[in-house]
Amino acid sequence: MNRFILIFTLAGLAFSSCNEKKTPTPPPVPVNLYTVKSQRVFYYDEYPATTAALSQVDIRPEVQGYITGIFFTEGSYVKKGQRLYEIDRRLYQANYDAAAANVKVAEANQRQAQQDADRYIYLNEHNAVAKQVLDHAVIALQSAKDQTSAAEQAVKTAATNLTYSIIEAPFTGTIGFSQVKLGNMVTVGTTVLNTISTDDPMAVDFLVNEAQLQRFQQIEQKKKAVDSLFTIVLPNHNLYPGTGKISVIDRAIDAQTGSIRVRLVFPNPQHTLRVGMSCILRVHNQDASPQMVIPERAVVEQMGEYFVFIAKDTLIARTDSAKKTSDSAASVPRLRAYQVKVQLGQTIGANIVIKSGIQDGDRIIVDGVQAIHEGSEINASSRPSGASGRGSDSSPEQKKDTSRNN
Which of 74, 81, 103, 220 is the most buried (most CB within 10 A)? Predict the structure, then answer.
């Protein structure tokens, strides 16, 4: 019995000694650090946009008939007053000639009625005609005058219809495909012959959120717009050489989308821009104040909030008694990672603007954030890291990536 007690006692002591062994401390996580420093940044806010004509109309006939002439090349540039279509003029010419002849008849009847009235007025002065005859003569004269006026109005109507049989360009612009061919019958108010639109200058329409409306209103109110404030990128990814300015801000905000339409005007002397073209509008950032820019890969998202890890020096007590030779050697500085919440600004290439949460001089962990947590011991790598410099004063201007901000 004593033997078994001795065995269990020795086993317990062995197990206790195993538990007293310390768990080995994990090695520091290698990371790259970036020191925050405010700088001026240049970037563009980008918006999907569509080109539009400042003036565009559907050409419709004002009279009915068959198309007897087409005098333009489809898709060409036409000038104001240029002849485009001709509708069969024979009927309208005949109506005009008949109306003109009726005027002559009415004028002859009026002259005769005038002579009769003058004669009866003279005779009435000498009491040589009945009063009733004079009254009838005056009424007949007035009726003849009214008939003349009606005939003259009929001539104007016939002349207008005859003029409408020739359709001219209402303004200078580009004309599209003809919707009718020679010999087609056209009807007033229903048939669309063609569409013509102006192309210099050209409008560019885009939508902005109601929260950004005040910014564009302030730009519109400025008398002198900043050069290259508004530029566009064409569908072939080339930058359009001209710059635009605000023309119109719509009167109301769309209640369903919370957005409002803004129209810019761009010169288009080479007719590079076409109506309905999709492009990217770039709005140059005008904020000249320094901003904190860090590599975007340093940002960690958690439950819709954004954080970065800051490296801070922490004193760690040594347990090696052989090294405890002095008070100065009793502890050593170690780098540890601490998480802080930040507010994001614009994304500029591979970098991002931080509005709050950090300050100049903070050391941000850039690479290795996936392997660390709050309080993790870290080891700063000698491998260089940091913001790429894109968007700074010494670098080319960069486009805005709106994927995080939308």
Answer: 103
Q: Tens of pLDDT along 93-110?
A: 999 999 999 999 999 999
The total number of residues shown for the chain amounts to 406
Per residue in 165-198, pLDDT (tens digit) is 999 999 999 999 999 999 999 999 899 999 999 9
Two structure tokens written together for 310: 């800051």
For the chain, domain boundaries: 24-42+289-401, 45-54+198-284, 59-88+166-197, 90-164
Is there a contact between 243 and 228 (Cβ–Cβ < 8 Å)?
yes
Render pLDDT for 211-258 as a digit per residue (tens, 0 to 9). 888 888 888 887 555 667 899 999 999 999 989 999 899 999 999 999
CATH 2.40.50.100 fits 59-88+166-197, yes or no: yes
User: Which of 3.90.550.10, 2.40.30.170, 2.60.120.330, 2.60.120.10 is the CATH number of 45-54+198-284?
Assistant: 2.40.30.170
C-alpha 94/C-alpha 117 separation (Å) is 35
Q: Which residues pair with 308 in a beta bridge?
A: 340
Model pLDDT for residues 305-332, shown as the tens digit of each residue: 899 999 888 765 555 544 444 444 445 5
Decide which of 1.10.3720.10, 1.10.287.470, 3.90.1030.10, 2.40.110.10 is the CATH code for 90-164.
Answer: 1.10.287.470
For 45-64, b/e burial (b = at least 16 CB within 10 A) is: bbbebebbbbebeebebebb
Residue with tokens 């994304």: 347
**Among 377, 380, 345, 376, which Cα is nearest to 366's?**
380
Write the CA distances from 65 to 166, 188, 196, integer angstroms: 11, 9, 22
pTM of structure: 0.63
175 bridge partner residues: 196
pLDDT at 30: 85
CA distance 115 to 130: 17
Distance (Å, whole) CA 391 – CA 361: 20
Neighbours of 175 (CB within 10 A): 21
- Which of 362, 298, 376, 293 has its CA nearest to residue 43? 293
